[in-house]
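[step 3/7] fold_predict: job queued, chain A
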Amino acid sequence: MTTQPTTTEAPPALAPATPEGFWASYGRAWVRTPGSAVYLLAVFVLAMVSVTVLASLFWTGVGLLVLVIGLPIVVGTLVIARGFGAADRGLLRLTGLPTIVEPEWNRDRTDAGGFWLTLTRPLRNAHYWVYLVHGVVVSPIISTISFALTTVWLSVGLGGLTYWFWGVFLPRGDRGADWGRYVADALPWLFGGWSAWTVEVVLYLLAGMVFTFTMPWVLGGLARGHHAVAVGMLGRWKSDDLAAEVRAEAAARGAAVHAEDVALRRLERDIHDGPQQRLVRLQLDLAALERRAESGDADAAAELAREARAHAKAALDELRALSSGVAPPLLQDRGLAAALAATAAGAPIAVHTDIDPAIDAVTSPEIARTVYFVVAELLTNVVKHAGATAATLKVSLRPSVSGAPSMLDVWVVDNGRGGASYAAGHGLEGLRERVAGLRGMLVVDSPVGGPTSIGAHVPLAASAS
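[step 4/7] structure written:
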């Protein structure tokens, strides 16, 4: 990671504003002004509709709570309030301000509970009630204020600048009643000799210039006020992130448990089909060898001894291979980088490796075992199924960005026939579940004809969970 150089200069926000900086900022504010004006006018209409609909439905539902129908009406009101709040958040995008993240609506997400628990779920979620308060009370109040100020600034600003054109079409009535004449008579030192029409045009023009010049700040400030209220009432809370974190943790642990169960079943099957069968054959060969030795047939006994030794060696090799897939000694003794390099070197095809040695210092034993198993399985798949002649193994660290955990990126790329895909119950699906157990993700890019690129991305913060 790069470190920022130390400096004694003042931060940019504290530096004195230059004319160029002021006009650039003012220009950017003007770019956002049309969107802010449209939002401030549209949100007033939305607020009037929301207070009418929500208040009517809610109090109707409350009045009918003594009957069964009242509860669904209240729940439906909360759902409609959510829709009005979502519309407000959507309109706020016109202002160019940061997008407001949607709240967590189903914190108690579960398939169990029955009809009534599912129906009343909005009643147990504070976000629905806050949205209701926003749609019935808060939004109508602040929208009315902002609508009044917006209409004043737009009418005076735009109307004042163009009064010289459209003012001539207005009925003037008695010329002596023109307010421009009263102003000219009250300020003869300023408007002496001016006609009433000229005084009106000049004053309207000055007012239009002032209101138009300040329009970006006023409308932008009103939009930011709406945005601040929406962030607090319509946005995502810290408790939502905690709930999502707990749910993700539970899902990761569930995936890990399932992956371990599948791996144990596969290990049991491999032991039964491999070493166990060889050991049974070895037992039979030893029994036959004993009979040959008792009968004095030395040549037959020697042949059986050689076959028994071959079966014993094959069983030992298979047991070593199976144990290396569970907890290889090299991984425990020398670390993940050395274990991955040894696995790549032992593959029957050429495997180019690019492994960052720093991974040993930041990976937990749990992450190291899973990554080793995933890489070993991927290289085995390359040899057995891909028809590849060469592969590349790249393992690197990705620094954290914006508070996110650092990532361990593992890529296995081969030049085989491609077409790899997930299949329920085995293969890549099992590897995806293993990686998901560490709250990571497995990415497969394998078009027909190749090449195949499979990446495992594991957050290193998972070691602390």
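[step 5/7] annotate
The chain has three domains: 14-236, 274-325, 327-464.
DSSP finds 15 helices and five strands in the chain.
exit 0
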